[in-house]
Amino acid sequence: MSNLTNPYPSPLLPTVCCIGAGYVGGPTMAMIAQKCPHIKVTVVDISQPRIDAWNSDELPIYEPGLDEVVKACRGKNLFFSTDVAVAIAESEMIFVSVNTPTKKTGLGKGKAADLTYWESAARTIAAVSKSNKIIVEKSTVPVRTAEAIEKVLKRNCSDATVQFDILSNPEFLAEGTAMTDLAAPDRVLIGGKIEGQAGKDAVDSLCEVYANWVPEERILRANLWSAELSKLAANAFLAQRISSINAMSALCEATSADVSQVAHALGTDSRIGPKFLNASVGFGGSCFQKDILNLAYICECHGLKEVADYWYSVVGMNDYQKSRFVKRVVSAMFNTIRNKKIAMLGFAFKKDTGDTRETPAIDVGKGLIEDGAELAIYDPKVSDEQIAMDMEGMNDNITCYKTAKEALQDAHAVTIMTEWDEFKTYDWQEIYGVMQKPAFVFDGRNILDHDHLKEIGFIVYALGKPIDPFLKSAEGVI
Ligand code: UDX
Ligand code: ADP
Known about the structure:
- The chain is an alpha/beta fold.
- It folds into two domains: 15-214, Rossmann fold, CATH 3.40.50; 317-475, Rossmann fold.
- Helix content is 42%, strand content 13%.
- It has a six-stranded parallel β-sheet with strand order 3-2-1-4-5-6, with helices on both faces. A six-stranded parallel β-sheet has the order 11-10-9-12-13-14, with helices on both faces.
- Helix 1 (25-35) links the parallel strand 1 (15-19) and strand 2 (40-44).
- It starts with 14 loop residues before the first strand and ends in a 6-residue tail after the last helix.
- Bound molecules: uridine-5'-diphosphate-xylopyranose and adenosine-5'-diphosphate (ADP).
- The site of adenosine-5'-diphosphate has 21 residues, from helix 5.
């Protein structure tokens, strides 16, 4: 790609664009703009409200550090627009970061990735391209998507001389830490048709962009199919660790072992390592479940039933953990939570994000309401409207509060759904005073000081920890 490392801004800035201004496209492009002031970066989306938000003081997503970067670059070399055609036409490199949800209907429903948005983006690219383009897959896609996309591009471009080189550059950022992940990634993976010169050149061009801030040894090159599969595999491995420790948490409760101690013992084995061993009420987020189901579906399509079943069990364990938590709440509270106010602290799928996609709070919340509970929800970042959408059909039994204090007033129990730091700083003695008695705490993230809570008088259930004697009689139901 011409001029990408040219340090002198000129009227002919090398230009890249990104289709899809979501959780991946927005932060990733903001980082490229910040680290490469000599590159013009345009992020486009079909959603006018989303683009308006990116151009306003209220960005459409909450991500620590994102505001500062966007404010510093916007209008200089970072632009947000709905004019998809113009951005494509003027760019040499086009990142595609559109949503690839799980199919809801038809062949592979509930498992396969829905590539409708991807294909539509590819058709637009083909329709407006008059010069060679490097197409970069950023969205997580099934293995060999590049092949399908290439066919769509070639068959729909009216100019047969236009060359499309497709790269797979999966994004490994995690929400809540996106900006630090992008600034100092463990690795950048770039897959291309490296067996041919054109493919090698395309890979080199993208490497040049990242080389502006990522050390050379962290930029990995691979063939297209390895890069596509690596992204699905990485998410499957990470989710599998959480399901493994969550499976242990159930056994710990049955044997009076402590899952934190077990995780520490496991994590100090350098072959296992300490990360992603926090037992929780279940993993959420837009990626883990979707990508595992997609991976398993691909296995099925290749006749690998046993391999597919292995990965399905990771999702199965996650579902079990959520329903196990609901049963713990109901059984602890004398098998009836009908008309009881239960405070739910946290609704986002993890801390430092307002994202609720696949959050365990949805399934747990529904489970509690099915048993008659009145939910009082407080989350520092999730809007009431979002909760209402996620809990559709159940909203008569839900009240959202602007403060935790209001949610906890007269509550019979509190469930911790998200590991927000502020929950640890609350005055739990005072909270105990305003709750009904016995006052229960169900810590689905193991973030509170359980000994302190017990001293105050709370009945505490903590995942994977020895069961409180008060709850012992209720144990058999799990
Ligand atoms: C994940 C991958 O980490 C990232 O590389 C990929 O690009 C997108 O998917 P994300 O979903 O944003 O990122 O968050 P992550 O930090 O991986 O957490 C996913 C879920 O697992 C959250 O619900 C989190 O609370 C849960 N989790 C994580 C645990 O329950 N225990 C842990 O030890 C770690
Ligand atoms: P992710 O978490 O993968 O970033 P999001 O759902 O947050 O996914 O963002 C994907 C974005 O892609 C959405 O804002 C959606 O409007 C946009 N999008 C989908 N299809 C197209 C398209 N054909 N052209 C432009 N934008 C698109």
